[in-house]
Task: inverse folding
């Protein structure tokens, strides 16, 4: 019999792109309604970066994916800094325009990459949560994209052999199985909501959110660290 956890092991090639377009439709209108000074706000999850820096990083990364530009060293810290510097003279509106296109166009390339770029889509979605948080907007690391994000997170952590965890989430009817131990380690247990689980796996501050975590330390969950 197929269990809900087993279903997540089958890759849906459209899922990463769907996650990005859902975020595009929510984030872009929010950004177009913000004052110019809001783009200079610091982003706590990315020390030294402002909202604009994060948006420029995301827009350049997605454009690279959409255009198939994967030269040596791409997505390294040095490459990311260079991409941001190249957009220094752009208006905030132009950065948002590029981000909108990237969120819409990168999904087709990611779908055909046999899973190699799925983690990038999840990372871009997390960065959108970083921006929401910096702007004081509700819904950071949640919203309409959360079900796809959680399913993607579960599959990626299992494919990478990450520390095993069973999550009982307020947002899902069935428990979510993350990571894979091969029987070497009993799974940890998480009880709480989906956005808090995302924060833990992304290494973001939980800020006193109510949750229970047993059998594993929070620092072990971080997939971006």
Result:
């Amino acid at each position: 019999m197929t269990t809900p956890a087993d279903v997540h092991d089958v890759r849906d090639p459209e899922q990463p792109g769907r996650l990005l377009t859902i975020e595009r439709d929510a984030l872009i209108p929010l950004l177009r309604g913000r004052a110019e000074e809001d783009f200079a706000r610091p982003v706590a999850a990315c020390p030294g970066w402002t909202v604009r820096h994060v948006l420029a990083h995301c827009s350049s990364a997605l454009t690279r994916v959409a255009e198939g530009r994967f030269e040596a060293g791409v997505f390294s810290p040095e490459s990311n800094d260079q991409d941001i510097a190249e957009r220094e003279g752009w208006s905030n509106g132009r950065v948002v325009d590029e981000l909108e296109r990237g969120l819409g166009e990168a999904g087709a390339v990611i779908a055909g990459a046999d899973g190699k770029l799925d983690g990038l889509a999840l990372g871009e979605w997390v960065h959108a949560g970083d921006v929401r948080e910096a702007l004081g907007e509700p819904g950071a690391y949640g919203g309409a994209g959360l079900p796809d994000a959680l399913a993607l997170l579960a599959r990626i952590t299992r494919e990478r052999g990450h520390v095993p965890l069973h999550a009982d989430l307020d947002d899902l009817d069935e428990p979510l199985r993350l990571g894979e131990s091969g029987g070497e380690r009993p799974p940890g247990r998480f009880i709480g909501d989906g956005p808090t689980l995302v924060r833990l796996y992304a290494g973001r501050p939980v800020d006193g959110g109510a949750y229970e975590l047993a059998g594993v330390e929070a620092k072990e969950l971080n997939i971006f660290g």
The longest helix spans residues 92-111.
